[in-house]
Amino acid sequence: MASPGPQTDFLEPPTGARRIRSIGPGLLAAATGVGAGDLVATMVAGASFGTVLLWAAVVGTLVKLALGEAVGRWHLGSGATMLDGWRRLGYWATGFFGVYIVVWGFVYGATAMSAVGLPLNALFGGLPVGGWAAIAGVVGLALVWVQRYHAFEKFMTVLVLIKFATVVFVAILVGPDLPALANGLVPRLPEGSTVYVLGLIGGVGGTITMAAYGYWLFAKGWKGPKWLSMMRLDNATGYIMTGIFVVSMLVVGSTILLGENLTESDSGLLTLADRLGALYGEPVRILFLVGFLSVTFTSLLGVWNGVSLLFTDWVRAIRLPHGAKAAIGPDVENAVVAGEERTAAGGAGSTAAGDTAAAGDERGGGPGRPGAYEAARAERSLPFRGYLLWLTFPPMALLLIGRPFALTLVYGVLGSFFMPFLAVTLLLLLNTSMVAREARSRWLSNAVLGISSVLFAVLLVTDVYSRLT
């Protein structure tokens, strides 16, 4: 039988005003998921259809909020990580994720660095975009390498507030048409808008980084069903801010660029910056570029930290029992969060990547047992730092030679599979006894996850079809 859980009475959820001060992981997850590509997609939708598709941006925000809440609920309700849940489903789940995270990291590393290089080049010049991109990658590597979660959260929160304030200010400055905004809340599908609607609902803010949310909860010391209320406030704050941010970008695109045939690349944001400068002066152009830089750099830093945590846990989980042999549930301490004490059962030599559990009984000796995920050690582990290097240096080759078509195709197809994979697996896991009763899905959560699964499946088919034809 598993030994009693760790003593965490001192890790009690905050009350009153302290709840607001404790918000953090949700801001990181929401901010990391919105990068330059999402800004461009929203801007192009606004330029093409005005604010008619505002309803799609709102629905998209609600879908991501529900998915983020489900990820957090799994971690808090099961005491296990997302990778633990996937290994319970079988090697097909962890195998798919292992291939995906390696390919994704290589291609996205170049994408993220290039996105940061664009505003740096526009603001400071001196170096080509590729040069600034390489510098951004190395700076991100250094910051994530030396910082621990609490310092990382504070730094990211400042960047999130800068990007939020700058884009919302620009949206107010351009003078949104309030009646048109209200009219945009009525669902409509103008001719040729289906692809944009699907992108706004399913694409903006929806990436692999959504799965990192639970790891940031553990890094902050949140664990157990008693944290569900705090997690929901935290997650809702992050995605409500993201929703306001996306709507602001839609307003800017529809007001400044309506009717223009824009490029759907990150450089389209430079076109918008130049137009803002021509209309409102150089200070506004610079302000928007600072916001653009904050968007791209928060996305880069969030990926460098969050996805490296996911890879670290994959290294641990892939060596543990899968399927019915995986011992997971609220009565089994699968993870040790920041602030918890490990029991002697784990041994002093246990690492974040974990050791193979004893044959036949993965439950071991409770928290700190061989195979347990240890949040406090993860950021210092070899897999974490190895993946950080993988995100930073090999992708620099793509900055020079561009993306080979075959690699881009594999990256795109695997990426299209991830969001339906996440939604469907959460739907399966959150209706089992692996989750504490108060954290299990009820009819509303099941309905939202079910609808999201169908939506992401439609997106998968349309995206794969567009790539192959």
TrEMBL record:
<feature type="transmembrane region" description="Helical">
    <location>
        <begin position="89"/>
        <end position="110"/>
    </location>
</feature>
<feature type="transmembrane region" description="Helical">
    <location>
        <begin position="387"/>
        <end position="405"/>
    </location>
</feature>
<feature type="transmembrane region" description="Helical">
    <location>
        <begin position="286"/>
        <end position="311"/>
    </location>
</feature>
<feature type="transmembrane region" description="Helical">
    <location>
        <begin position="122"/>
        <end position="146"/>
    </location>
</feature>
<feature type="transmembrane region" description="Helical">
    <location>
        <begin position="443"/>
        <end position="462"/>
    </location>
</feature>
<dbReference type="InterPro" id="IPR001046">
    <property type="entry name" value="NRAMP_fam"/>
</dbReference>
<feature type="transmembrane region" description="Helical">
    <location>
        <begin position="195"/>
        <end position="218"/>
    </location>
</feature>
<feature type="transmembrane region" description="Helical">
    <location>
        <begin position="52"/>
        <end position="68"/>
    </location>
</feature>
<dbReference type="Pfam" id="PF01566">
    <property type="entry name" value="Nramp"/>
</dbReference>
<feature type="compositionally biased region" description="Low complexity">
    <location>
        <begin position="350"/>
        <end position="359"/>
    </location>
</feature>
<keyword id="KW-0812">Transmembrane</keyword>
<feature type="transmembrane region" description="Helical">
    <location>
        <begin position="158"/>
        <end position="175"/>
    </location>
</feature>
<feature type="transmembrane region" description="Helical">
    <location>
        <begin position="239"/>
        <end position="259"/>
    </location>
</feature>
<keyword id="KW-1133">Transmembrane helix</keyword>
<feature type="region of interest" description="Disordered">
    <location>
        <begin position="346"/>
        <end position="372"/>
    </location>
</feature>
<protein>
    <submittedName>
        <fullName>Nramp family divalent metal transporter</fullName>
    </submittedName>
</protein>
<feature type="transmembrane region" description="Helical">
    <location>
        <begin position="411"/>
        <end position="431"/>
    </location>
</feature>
<keyword id="KW-0472">Membrane</keyword>
